[in-house]
Amino acid sequence: MDTEQTKTATPPLLSPEKKKKLEQRLKNKARLVLKVNYFTSVFSIVFSALCMFLLDIVEVIPYVFLGFGSLNLLNTLLYKYHKNLTLTYNVVSIMTLTGSIIITLFSGGINSPFIFVLALIVVAGYVTTKSYGSLYLNLNLLIIVLIYSQSIADFTFVTDVVPEKSKNLFALLSILFSVYLLGGVFGKNLLSSHHSLYKTKDELEAKITEKETLLREVHHRVKNNLQTVSSLLSLQSRNHDDKMVKELLKSSQNRVISMAMVHEMLYLREDIGKIEYRSYVQELAEYLIRSIKGTSSNITLDVDIPDLKLNIDTAIPLGLLINECVTNALKYGIPKENKGEIEIKLRKGENDEYTLNIGDNGVGFAKEITHKTTKSLGLKLIHNLSRQLRGSIIRDLTKGGTHYVVKFREISDTIHSNT
């Protein structure tokens, strides 16, 4: 992937399905806010009438209820014109907070049953967004402390306007209002949203499972196709008497097999995004030994790789690199039936950098020979594959035989960090 293209690429537009779901979520949220607004407005106007004619409350409180109910109805109706849900919510929240503070102060302060309405503002905030919920939670905690401070102060600038005979009925209506609004309106809609959320979650899990199944099938088919190519190369090599041609076809067959093994492990393992690299390298190296040296060889294989998982973009070029190193060791480093040892060590270091040490104790080759001066395809491939891994490769001349040190990072991680 070209990192420069990634930087300037235009982000994809929402699919019609996602756009439809987003619009539906906004409509549901708007419906909840408007429903609560209509209910509280009507209830406030009714509460105002009850205060005047039933509870004999004639100061401040009924007028606050009436003013809130009328203004909130107007606020709700205006939404149909400006379609700004955030504006509608903030207006009603500010009016509710202001009205609740006034009614609480004039109906007993910290002892007023209407103080519980402040909690509804917090719930409404969290229904809208987490940030609004946190804001109103902290604000209401401060207001409650201030109301308490005013109640215990020697001088109070407000008085309780609820007659003694009406206190119990006012408390009953206030609590019924709070409980019904919290449970009947918010609770019902939150439960509906909760069910919708889990329904969406189940649908997403089903789609993910379906995609994983399809992806496994893709890996399975790619593996089968690569094995078919390998079989064709094998058949082709049998029809040639030229030893050099047969070796070239055999080398190509082994490269195809190394890629097929990656896809095989991806569809057989639980994690279809990454493969367990130790088992892959072990199987690949053992296959190469059997393929080149036969079943009864004098080759000792030492694979030292911890529990590491690599994605397919890194696993395939690294597997091909290991394939070339091991193949060269078996064909040229440890000739004929000689005893030999091949070691492969992979470690993950700091800054997510991997280090691969791979080599043999064979005859080696002159240090003057490099991928630039040789005609060997295998040696050129080793260096080209290290470049594909966006890494570096050096030959360790302090050891006998042929040893390489390859340093790299996972390809997708490198791209992501550059963008």
Description:
By secondary structure, the chain is an alpha+beta fold. The protein is 67% helix and 9% strand. The longest helix is centred in the middle third of the chain and has 72 residues, at 167-238.
Record the SSE blueprint.
Elements: H1 3-8, H2 16-53, H3 61-82, H4 85-105, H5 117-128, H6 130-152, H7 167-238, H8 243-268, E1 274-276, H9 277-293, E2 299-304, E3 309-311, H10 312-333, E4 340-348, E5 354-360, H11 377-388, E6 392-395, E7 402-408, H12 411-418
Parallel strand pairs: 2-4
Antiparallel strand pairs: 1-3, 4-5, 5-7, 6-7
Helix pairs in contact: 2-3, 2-7, 3-4, 4-5, 5-6, 5-7, 7-8, 8-9, 8-10, 9-10, 10-11
In short:
Helix content is 67%, strand content 9%. It has 419 residues and is α+β, with helices and mostly antiparallel strands.
Low-pLDDT windows of residues = 1-13, 413-419
> What is the topology, as strand order, of the major beta sheet?
2-4-5-7-6
| Distance between the ends | 11 Å
| SS summary, helix count | 12
Query: What is the helix content?
Result: 55-70%
Key features of this structure:
five-stranded mixed β-sheet; two-stranded antiparallel sheet; 7 strands; disordered N terminus
